[in-house]
Amino acid sequence: MAAAPGGRPEPPVPRYGEGALADLPPSVLASLGVPGAVNVLGLPPVPRVCVLLIDGLGWEQLKAHPDEAPFLNAMGGGPITSGFPATTVSSLGSLGTGAPPGEHGLLGVQVAIPGTGRLLNCLRWQDGSVVPEEFQPVPTVYERAAAAGVETAYVALRQYSGTALSRATARGSRYVAAQSLGQLVGRTELALRQGDRSFVTVYHADLDATGHRFGTGSADWRHQLRFMDMLVQEIAAVLPAGSALHVTADHGMVDPTERVDVDAVPELRDGVALLGGDARARYVYSEPGAHADVLAAWTARLGDRAWVVSREEAVANGWFGPLGPGMRERVGDVIAVPHTDLAIVATEREPWLNRMVGMHGSLVSAEQLVPLLTTSRP
Fold first, then answer.
1. Tens digits of per-residue pLDDT, 256-301?
2. Distance CA 223, CA 221 (A)
3. Are 216 and 253 in contact, with CB atoms under 8 Å apart?
4. What is the 3-state secondary structure (H, E, C) of 349-362?
5. Is 257 exposed, middle or buried (CB count within 10 Å of its CB: 0-12, 13-18, 19+)?
């Protein structure tokens, strides 16, 4: 990262349209021969594609563990950027639509519901008044694929089937429940063999969950990575003829040891109506007339350890990609993104977040860069 005046690094912008997670779905559709899809990533044409998303598998973490992940590290490919914020909700939105976060509107874990004075937790989605198909209005790649005669399937745990987030990101696909690694491989092989052309997405969350609980520096995380390497190897072994397997992730992860507790710092609460986002990508929604004061206070407190910018600056600099109608109001008036060993927590409002060891969301490479690795069977 280049340094800005005063020594603070310049925030790197995700490579939307050139090499970001949002570019993978249209490239897959193009490789399957779907009309109108743009093959940004230059994927080779095949009749069957499996995209395996390993939640939390950052590029830098993968390359730092060649012994735990020999098969993954031997695959061809390289890093792409996840998008901002580097978090599951936003990345699943991009993987499901082929659009950057600014277009699909799943702009983080906790975002404002415009005009309500409330936050929506996009993972838990406990607000029944928010309709997923309306909150995320972009047609999914599965709907586009199915319209072109491609068989689609989404293979993941049964508990995700029919959830609001699945409706927002995976509608149009046939949901296939798999409760174990063996089932995941078996269901994936069967789904890939359907029809003349098939597009199968596989999602696995355990590496991310392990990182959140124990950190990426833990033995637990390394052991879990070994299982993920075996999973990829097993799926690769059962690919039908004419299949490509693309392995990617939604974000990387870091283990910040320093914490700033917004609930314990009065100047970070003054003038703040809502606190959204996540510990590594905070959205601060200011009260009417307090925007300048909130920006100044957060900059003064965090400015040497985080990028603290206005919504207008982040949008203008392309952090989210192009913004769709009504999406601007979902973003905080002030955005605080740590680029050092820092987590911005709120222990009273979000005790669950403060208990995490591994975290993600920032623009730094350890969280932004994810693998795009490919193997195929002619």
1. 999 999 999 999 999 999 999 999 999 999 999 999 999 999 999 9
2. 5
3. yes
4. CCHHHHCCCCECCC
5. exposed
**Residue 171 CB-half CA count within 13 A:** 14
Region 225-246 average pLDDT: 98
Looking at residue 136, its amino acid is: Q
Identify whether the C-beta of residue 193 lies closer than 8 Å to the C-beta of residue 238.
no
Say if residue 66 is preceded by a cis peptide, omega within 30 of 0. no
Q: Is the peptide bond before 85 cis (omega within 30 degrees of 0)?
A: yes
**In this structure, are residues 305 and 298 in contact, taking their beta carbons and an 8 Å threshold?**
no
Contact 13, 316 (CB under 8 A): no
112: β partners: 119
Length of the chain: 378
- Nearest in space to 45 (alpha carbons), one of 242, 179, 212: 242
Which residue type occupies 224?
A: Q
The beta-strand segments (E) located in 17-163 are 48-54, 76-81, 110-113, 118-121, 151-156
Residues in CB range of 29: below 8 A, 6 or more apart? 37, 98, 141, 144, 145, 148, 150, 199
**Minimal CA–CA distance to 148: which of 46, 37, 34?**
34
In degrees rounded to 5, what are phi and psi of residue 42? 65, 40
Which tokens sit at 11?
């925030």
Query: Residue 4 and residue 7: Cα distance in Å, rounded?
Result: 6
Secondary structure of residue 215 in the 3-state scheme: coil
Q: Is 116 exposed, middle or buried (0-12, 13-18, 19+ CB in 10 A)?
A: exposed
26, 39 Cβ separation under 8 angstroms = yes
The CA distance from 160 to 96, in Å, is 15
Assess contact for 356 and 212: CB atoms under 8 A.
yes
pLDDT one-digit tens code per residue, 322-348 = 999 999 999 999 999 999 999 999 999
